[in-house]
Write a structure and sequence with these properties.
Blueprint lengths: L1 E9 L3 H12 L4 E5 L6 H6 L1 H18 L15 H25 L3 E4 L1 E6 L2 E5 L5 E11 L3 E3 L12 E2 L1 H4 L8 E5 L3 H12 L3 E6 L10 H13 L3 E4 L1 E9 L2 E8 L4 E6 L1 E4 L3 E3 L6 H4 L22 E3 L10 H15 L13 E3 L4 E6 L2 H6 L4 E7 L4 H5 L6 E7 L5 E8 L2 H13 L4 H5 L10 H10 L7
Parallel strand pairs: 1-2, 1-6, 2-3, 6-17, 8-15, 9-10, 9-15, 10-11
Antiparallel strand pairs: 4-5, 5-6, 7-16, 12-13, 13-14, 18-19, 19-22, 20-21, 21-22
Length: 466
């Protein structure tokens, strides 16, 4: 028996389930296919949500251990890792069930299984019990996400050589952990295990961490992480990883040709992700891919097959859950004849370490490369009364504005609640605001957000508190 739908979404991650809900809201008979057995994709199951839970719990552990410095005397603090992991898993479980409820509420049919194309209008869904269901659809949206990339010839075992998935499930704190790659995911996981007691070493091929980030923020970030006890080895290339009885040996070579071995209990390989298109049978229907195996789409997210669309990590652009969500809504609205749109100039990026790091728009380096004349306004959290009052004053806010028009071109923050503060800049940029618009907006006192206002004032050299 063939089931018929007006729209089918392959993938139940942030992009997929949001797209399915929006399609249903717009009146389409919609289905969503997810192979994992629980909705929410990588983000909710083995990415953003569990990592943020562990980041928070490890930070709480670290804070409690150091409360005596602030006049709060407590007894011996012990780590109960199994209980901590249970708390993380509980958060994931509640949220995945919440997404399932949302699909039900919006009358989206949910298929648990792996989808593959039989033709441009037909998908075969194979369940975990090998039951096959054929689905026909007028419109199909591919939102199958991404998977971690390893180094050539090195396979994840998720116990000693781990991806972010394995790093979220370690059953004991490693004495020594090596992280290959100094990007968002590696640094977040490194922060977790460092705070819980591991000796953490980050091996990075480039001469700086967090590639693509504003260099000044990147440099400040590394200084702070070093103070927290994380060790960095820049311009080191990993030649091989060999497992032994106690874990593994990571063999590297630096820019001068000097070789160095790192013996450790766990190696986290965090060198990027790739589109998850295995098993979709895209070659059968002739979907065009680019040189990085991403699905090619036009500005309306349509592939070269006119009824098939793609969003999220399987297409070009930052591999971020919120980018996929916005694309999911946009493609649904486009299919309905509306004007769905994503402004890629205002997609924020956040690293949820302590302090947080957040970025939106252009970096200083990008503006210089394009010969754009700009002004800079900076303000340190050391001069922010709220940050000082709670002893959380590391970092600064940096706003970049056009030299002639004063239009905000980008902002880069490192400090407390940077991931929340960046939203104000996002709204400003969406409305084409100037730095003066932010500067003249009244901000409550005492708040962290006053640092954003002061940075905006500093663009024209009129900050009050610095």
């Amino acid at each position: 028996m063939i089931e018929k739908f007006q729209a089918v979404v392959i993938g139940g991650g942030p992009g997929g389930y949001v797209c399915a809900i929006r399609l249903a809201q717009l009146g389409f008979k919609t289905a969503c296919i997810e192979s994992r057995g629980s909705l929410g994709g990588t983000c909710l199951n083995i990415g953003c949500i569990p990592s943020k839970s562990l980041l928070n719990l490890s930070e709480e552990f670290h804070k409690v251990k150091n409360l005596s410095n602030k006049g709060i005397e407590i007894g011996e603090v012990k780590l109960n890792l199994p209980k901590m992991m249970k708390s993380k898993d509980k958060a994931v479980s509640i949220l995945t069930k919440g997404v399932e409820f949302l699909l039900k509420k919006n009358k989206v049919t949910y298929f648990q299984g792996t989808g593959s194309f039989k033709s441009k209008n037909e998908i075969m869904v194979k369940s975990n019990t090998n039951k096959e269901t054929s689905i026909q659809a007028d419109k199909i949206i591919i939102a199958s996400g991404s998977i971690p990339v390893s180094l050539p010839g090195i396979k994840f075992d998720e116990e000693v050589i781990v991806s972010s998935t394995g790093a979220l499930k370690l059953n004991q704190v490693p004495k020594k952990m090596v992280i290959v790659g100094g990007g968002y995911i590696g640094l977040e996981m490194g922060s977790v295990w460092s705070r819980l007691g591991a000796e953490v070493h980050v091996v990075e091929f480039l001469d700086h961490i967090t590639p693509g980030m504003d260099k000044e923020i990147s440099n400040e970030f590394m200084k702070i992480l070093k103070k927290q006890g994380i060790n960095f080895h820049l311009q080191h290339k990993v030649e091989k990883i060999k497992k032994n009885k106690s874990g593994a040996i990571v063999s590297t070579i630096d820019k001068n040709g000097d070789k160095k071995d790192f013996e450790c209990n766990v190696v986290l390989i965090s060198v990027g992700r790739k589109p998850n298109i295995i098993g979709l049978n895209l070659e059968k229907i002739g979907i065009n891919l680019d040189e990085k195996n991403r699905i090619k789409t036009d500005k309306n997210f349509r592939t070269n097959i006119n009824n098939i669309y793609a969003i999220g990590d399987v297409i070009a652009g930052p591999m971020l859950a919120h980018k996929a969500e916005d694309e999911g809504i946009a493609v649904a609205e486009n299919i309905a004849g509306q004007s769905g749109h994503v402004n890629y100039e205002t997609i924020p990026g956040v690293i949820y370490t302590t302090p947080e790091v957040a970025s939106i728009g252009k970096t200083e380096e990008q503006l210089k490369e394009k010969n754009v004349q700009f002004k800079i306004g900076k303000f340190s959290f050391m001069a922010n009364s709220r940050a000082k009052a709670i002893d959380d004053a590391e970092g600064f806010v940096k706003i970049l504005a056009d030299e002639k028009t004063d239009k905000v071109l980008g902002a880069h923050l490192i400090g407390p609640h940077a991931g929340e503060l960046i939203a104000e800049i996002g709204v400003a940029m969406e409305f084409g605001a100037s730095s003066e618009d932010i500067a003249r907006t009244c901000h409550a006192h005492p708040t962290f957000s006053e640092a954003v206002k002061e940075a905006a004032l500093a663009v024209d050299k009129r900050a009050i508190h610095s």
